């Protein structure tokens, strides 16, 4: 599963890669695994994320869902560490407010000192409403300056690179679950997990296996991949 969420390949590409390693699994099965386990991976990884800093860079990009453009709100801090994301059918003040409420509710986030956005007029309205509701620190400063948002705009490329081979998504909920997996593995590759290096593929594979309480055997990676999704709820091997 992590391969699909980390590299720009299709489900059929992954099916052939696994077949080359002696693992017979259909691409439709891989799709169902992603839909089931990607959102769960996002939830289980949260306690292992270090706190973000107080300088947020927020922007939205678009992805195609059933041939229509949907808006993906994303935020990173000044170090480029992912804060949160939200897929929305609309690009307005209500969607922006919903995104900020979601991001502020995460255990690894802090109330930001500054929020840097582009010239989208929806952001000032959303920030004002959040301050009135007491959800956002009243001294948080909004900066509408496009060139300061280069960090998050460059970070959009990670998502675009992964979405491109599949030519979009077939449904809103499918897109939301798959994007959750993309964002989780982006955090892993950025080195956001405590004590896990972003380039250490073996450590990442073992960490994800332990999250799902699957016995992680070093001999299975990378020489032979044993798909253990059906055993995800079994107790860890002694």
UniProtKB/TrEMBL annotation:
The alphabetized list of GO BP terms reads: DNA recombination; transposition
Tell me the InterPro entries matching this sequence: DDE_dom, IS_Transposase, RNaseH-like_sf, Transpos_IS6
The family database entries (Pfam families) matched by this protein are listed as: DDE_Tnp_IS240
* Leader sequence segment: none
Does the keyword field hold DNA-binding?
yes
- Is S-adenosyl-L-methionine tagged as a keyword? no
Q: In this protein, which residues make up the domain named DDE?
A: 55-192
Q: Name one GO molecular function term.
A: DNA binding
Question: What UniProt keywords apply to this chain's record, in alphabetical order?
Answer: DNA recombination, DNA-binding, Transposition
**What is the protein name for this chain?**
Transposase-like protein
Task: Tell me what organism the protein belongs to.
Answer: Muricoccus pecuniae
